[in-house]
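Whiteboard transcription, Tuesday session. T.W. wrote the structure tokens on the left side:
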């Protein structure tokens, strides 16, 4: 809390004396990107300062001259596809092509667990930016999908393939990047309330108050939500509780200087669902309701599966400041400082405890904090939009994993693995992006980012030892990479354009304490070979990918169609492979894979009351080399589809307004997948259907926009396998049953 208070005071102090801005699109870098206004000398308006109503009522916004493959989910679609939980921004993206979001929980909370892949890549490799700054973590890596309330988002943009240099900030973007726009304080006073209740004890209350524009031109909002639900099978809550508070304020200092500040606090406790073995997936009539044990048996081998030993709690603070200065009509300077912290203990069964043959319980605890800022200078120079940016961050990611044995159902301390950083990590990442229109038809987008990520050295301690063993330590590691981006779009007709792009993406390698636990388990073999922990760490490198895109956009009066082709090569993926130096199987950055395929998005509004959105994707994601896991064991992985990657995904969403009732059926097809690297554990394809109904009442008693709703997920109660827990080199997957039919009623209103 002391660190939080210091961070709050620093950013608040900065916000009071200088200015701010929200997310800024380099596609429209200079206010309106209007050369005629520049020539006429009229003042240009920056689109992120002056809000313009350019959105249409649909699921996904139309794109025009953008050079990257990207989809922007509108606020209306977030409300629909985000489901009754309104807490998982991944769930809100599930209609888009090439992304597959699977959860054991009907409300999409992440401790279920949840599996998300984009073009075959796990979502731990996805950059997430909220309000123009990154939200990420290295250990338990990747985005924190349920630490925000979706009602406070204006839109979510998913970049697939190559990511422009100002959009992929974070620990990794090999699975693409998210750019989330915050729903800012409104100009008019108002309050919005939403109450939902449904299957399995689900209750969710949400309220948001907007101040409107005050005499000082100040605007702010404050919101809060409380959510509880039981698991649909087994004991425990999912969430047992989830409490969220958000606050945002905008304050112009002058006509050219503006400030903003946004704060989110989230705390939640989730009990996990138990995965099935592949053999159990063959008989869902018997195993569909299998979950963690409701009672302690007193047998150590069984009590690792007691539900009270399989849960986690997460507490997150997120603070974003923004300062904007508009020195001239064609220049904007922004600075976005931020602070983020997380404390997350996660309990789970562990069999065996590393370095022993004893079954037990693991408590993995994250205790992270990050402080940094994104500085950008944007201007119009000789008809060219120029953006120069710099991302800086200081992070502290200590990890502790404590193991307990079990005696008659009681926890008995066994050992602790400590990762104590020798200082803070640093990220320095300057970038440049330039865009220019040549005539009316040709749009060019070029950029380059340099990444320098300095991770501190680590003192690794095993608490069962009375003295620190230097062999457990490793020195600091610096990862450097140039990340180019180049894209071109060309208007073939007033309603049709073609685009192509190339971009290099990256992922910070994560491994501790997994690498450390492997080292401890076989320390005698490493010592005999004359190597230590440093040897294992040196075999872990930055993952990179080269991404190529080719797409078309057709925009008619009542329809749009956007087909795309893509190809990407991935290098330095972490695989468990045999190392003859130590005669052990260790995690090394030797994995190579590639992905190629096609995507299609279609939006149609045939009549005024009917909107249709459909997406289709074909993904061939395959490992390109065999690898060894023992002296005489070769894994013939070359050409195999990466685990948990359906080749075909098809989605359809329809909204029809009939006599004041908004009827929205959603259909999703997921092709067959494999849970293992050799593609021997095949999971069948499935269809699942959802239905959302809303009825709008006329204003009464000072209430407006009063809406009654019913949401039904898995309408036909289909029994299927959803989330698969696996990595690209997994020998055996863990499988989660998809949630059964779930019904939620809701009422929402504005004051």
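and on the right, the sequence the group agreed on:
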């Amino acid at each position: 809390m002391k660190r939080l208070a210091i961070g709050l005071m620093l950013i608040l102090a900065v916000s009071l004396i200088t200015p701010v801005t929200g997310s800024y699109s380099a596609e429209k870098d200079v206010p309106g990107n209007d050369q005629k206004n520049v020539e006429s000398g009229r003042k240009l308006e920056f689109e992120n300062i002056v809000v313009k109503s350019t959105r249409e009522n649909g699921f996904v916004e139309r794109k025009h001259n953008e050079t990257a493959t990207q989809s922007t989910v509108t606020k209306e679609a977030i409300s629909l596809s985000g489901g009754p939980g309104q807490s998982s921004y991944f769930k809100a993206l599930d209609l888009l092509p090439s992304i597959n979001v699977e959860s054991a929980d009907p409300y999409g909370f992440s401790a279920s667990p949840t599996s998300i892949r984009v073009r075959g890549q796990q979502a731990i490799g996805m950059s997430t930016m909220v309000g123009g700054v990154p939200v990420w973590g290295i250990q338990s890596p990747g985005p924190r999908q349920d630490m925000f309330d979706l009602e406070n988002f204006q839109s979510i943009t998913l970049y697939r393939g190559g990511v422009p240099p100002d959009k992929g900030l974070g620990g990794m973007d090999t699975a693409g990047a998210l750019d989330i726009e915050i729903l800012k304080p409104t100009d008019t006073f108002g309050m919005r309330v939403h109450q939902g209740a449904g299957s399995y004890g689900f209750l969710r209350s949400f309220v948001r108050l907007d101040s409107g524009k005050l005499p000082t031109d100040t605007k702010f909002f404050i919101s809060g939500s409380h959510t509880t639900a039981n698991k649909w099978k087994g004991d425990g809550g999912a969430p047992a509780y989830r409490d969220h508070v958000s606050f945002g304020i905008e304050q112009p200092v002058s006509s050219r200087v503006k400030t903003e500040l946004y704060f989110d606090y989230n705390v939640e406790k989730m009990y996990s669902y138990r995965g099935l073995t592949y053999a159990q997936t063959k008989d869902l009539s018997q195993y569909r309701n299998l979950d963690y044990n409701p009672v302690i048996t007193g047998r150590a081998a069984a009590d690792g599966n007691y539900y009270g030993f399989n849960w986690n709690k997460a507490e997150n603070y997120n603070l974003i400041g923004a300062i904007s200065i508009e020195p001239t009509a064609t220049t904007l300077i922004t600075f976005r400082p931020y602070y983020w912290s997380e404390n997350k203990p996660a309990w789970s069964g562990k069999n065996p405890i590393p370095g022993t043959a004893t079954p037990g319980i693991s408590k993995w605890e994250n205790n992270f904090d990050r402080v940094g800022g994104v500085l950008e200078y944007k201007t119009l120079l000789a008809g060219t939009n120029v953006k120069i940016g710099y991302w800086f961050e200081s992070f502290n990611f200590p990890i502790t994993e404590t193991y307990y044995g079990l005696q008659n159902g009681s926890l008995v301390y066994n050992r602790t693995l400590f990762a104590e950083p020798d200082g803070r990590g640093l990220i320095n990442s300057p970038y440049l992006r330039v865009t220019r229109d040549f005539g009316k038809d040709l749009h060019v987008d070029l950029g380059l980012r340099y990444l320098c990520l300095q991770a501190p050295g680590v003192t690794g301690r095993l608490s069962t030892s009375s003295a620190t063993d230097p062999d457990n330590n490793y020195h600091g590691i610096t990862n450097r990479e140039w990340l180019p981006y180049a894209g071109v779009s060309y208007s073939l007709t007033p309603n049709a354009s073609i685009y192509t792009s190339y971009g290099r993406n990256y992922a910070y390698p994560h491994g501790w304490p997994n690498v450390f636990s492997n080292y401890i388990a076989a320390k005698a073999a490493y010592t005999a070979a004359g190597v230590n922990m440093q040897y294992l760490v040196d075999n872990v490198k930055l993952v990179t990918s080269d991404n190529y895109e080719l797409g078309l956009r057709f925009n008619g009066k009542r329809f749009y169609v956007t087909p795309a082709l893509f190809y990407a090569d991935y290098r330095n993926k972490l695989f468990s492979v045999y190392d003859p130096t130590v005669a052990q199987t260790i995690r090394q950055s030797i994995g190579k894979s590639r992905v190629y395929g096609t995507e299609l998005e279609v939006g149609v509004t045939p009549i005024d009351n009917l909107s249709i959105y459909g997406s289709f994707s074909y993904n061939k994601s395959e490992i390109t080399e065999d690898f060894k896991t023992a002296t005489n064991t070769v894994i013939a992985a070359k050409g195999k589809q990466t685990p948990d990657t359906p080749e075909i995904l098809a989605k359809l969403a329809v909204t029809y307004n009939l006599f004041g009732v908004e009827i929205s059926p959603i259909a999703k097809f997921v092709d067959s997948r494999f849970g293992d690297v050799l593609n021997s554990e095949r999971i069948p394809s499935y269809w699942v259907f959802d239905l959302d109904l809303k009825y709008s009442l006329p204003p009464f008693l000072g209430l407006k926009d009063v809406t009654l709703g019913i949401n039904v997920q898995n309408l036909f109660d289909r029994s299927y396998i959803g989330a698969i827990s696996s990595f690209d080199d997994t020998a055996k997957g863990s499988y989660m049953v998809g949630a059964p039919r779930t019904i939620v009623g809701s009422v929402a209103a504005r004051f």
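Someone added at the bottom: Residues 2-17 form the longest helix (16 residues).
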